[in-house]
Every structure is written in structure tokens, then in C-alpha cells.
Amino acid sequence: MTVPHNTVETIRKASWQETFQTFFLWMCTPLGACITIYGLNVVAWGGMLFLLMCNAAPAMCHPSCNSLDSSRRIWIEIDSQILNALFCVTGFGLAPWRIRDLYQWSFWRLGWSEGRRRKGLNRLEEIHKNWFVKFQEPSVLPIKTQQHYPAAEQATPTPLWKMDVVVWGNFLNTVFQVCLAVCMWAMNRFDRPSWTTGLFVGLACVVAGAAGILMWLEKKRVKKASEHPGALLLIPRATQSILPGIKGGDYTSVSRNHELA
Fold first, then answer.
1. Which residues does residue 255 pair with via DSSP β-bridges, in sequence order?
2. Alpha helix locations (H) across the chain?
3. I want to staple 79 with a disulfide (CB 3.0 to 4.6 A). Which of 49, 65, 73, 191 is the partner?
4. How far apart are CA 7 and CA 225, in angstroms?
5. DSSP character at residue 228
6. So where does this one cross the membrane (predicted)?
7. What is the CA radius of gyration of the chain?
8. pLDDT tens digit string along 148-185?
9. Using one digit for the tens of pLDDT, what is the confidence trace for 36-74?
């Protein structure tokens, strides 16, 4: 197959209409609908709480903005309780899987034998295989045979400290959520110290955000390594090998695997 001299073969990117259509189809699934409703509630109640904290509604400051009997302080308590309940859905709902990861982590880091430590690490690698690239032992297979393996397995292995951050970040999110729930449910708004809510909410968001961002960046790196942006190369006839049946003056589009072969 030949193309003109000034033609460039590119991989078409999905338009925003196609992206929106894909998101809409995912949103219509049971899991997508639940996640969408959950996210909208967090954004809505969190935005309302932020506006109340900024005194965006002066009419609610009666007799004063800081009075415990004012509408502002009452709605701040309502918003805080609703957000605490929403955060408990993920903090408590994912607790069994997070405890399982910490259990396997203890075998990996605290195991008394090499086999037990290796077993714990292998289990964690299997659980987090969607973003964690494990170390591949050198293969004795020919190069042509190795090319048939997924490119993600040939990417640079993920540093082990990232597994530590993800396991402990997720587990500490549940721990801080338990502390927040105890403070919110065991004490009323008159006796509860004001610093407890902000402290535990901030700590829970920081540890969960660190683990989530790290997994997202690593998954993005693995995806980038698995792509083949140069699958179709434009090779000048003057500098590369000539394919049968190709006339001079044109550029030939060949696959990377064909070139390596």
C-alpha cells in the first residue's frame, strides 16, 4: 500500500459527541447510574455546605451567623450529616476489600519466609493488575514470539512503594471515616468540637485522593505503553528497504511488526 509524499497516517481521536455517547451508555447501566447519583449528591450537598460556610445566605443568619439556633448553623449540621453518610457508603462498603489488601500486605512486608512474602505480593499484583505492572522475569523465547505478548506486560514495572501507598491510603480512609462517623453520631452539634469534622474529613480526603491519583497516573502510564502510535509508519524508499512492487518517489506504510521482522 502506497500513499502520496505529503500524506500522514494518523490515529483518529474520538470526538466529544462519541465520548458523551459512551458516557451516557455507561450511565444507563445499574452501576453507572448508582455512581452518577452518588457523585451528584456529593457535589450538591458539598457545594451547599461550602456556600453556607462562606455566609452566602445572609438571610439565614438570625439572630446571628454564629448562633447555634440560626438557620445557617442548623443547615450546616444537616449538610455535614448527609455528607458523612455519603462518605460512609464508600468508607464502610469497601472496608472488606481494603482489609483483605492490608492482610495480604502484611504477608508481603512482614512475612517470615521468602515464599510467604512472595505469595502476598503475587496476590496483591493479581488484585491490582488493572494498574500495577509486575516485574517480568527475562524470557528465553525468541523475539518474534515475545512480540505476541501484551505490551502492558512489557512496560516498565511499577515501583513497589506505590503498592504501599495505595493499600495504606485506602485503609486509612476507612479508619478516618470511622473516626468522623463516631464524632458525628456520638456527639450532638452543641457538644461536638468544631475541629473534629474538618480534621477527619481533610485526612480522609487526602489519603483517598493520594491513592486514587497514584492509581490513575499509573493506569495512564500503562495505557500509554500499551498503545502503538507508530503502528503505521511512513518509510522513505531512499533510506529504507524496498518492498516488492513499489515504485520510487513514494512513501510506503508498513506495520512496526513487519519492520522488526
1. 232
2. 16-27, 30-53, 71-93, 95-110, 114-127, 143-146, 160-186, 194-226, 256-260
3. 49
4. 26
5. -
6. 23-52, 165-187, 199-217
7. 27
8. 444 444 568 899 999 999 999 999 999 999 999 999 99
9. 999 999 999 999 999 998 888 888 888 888 888 889 999
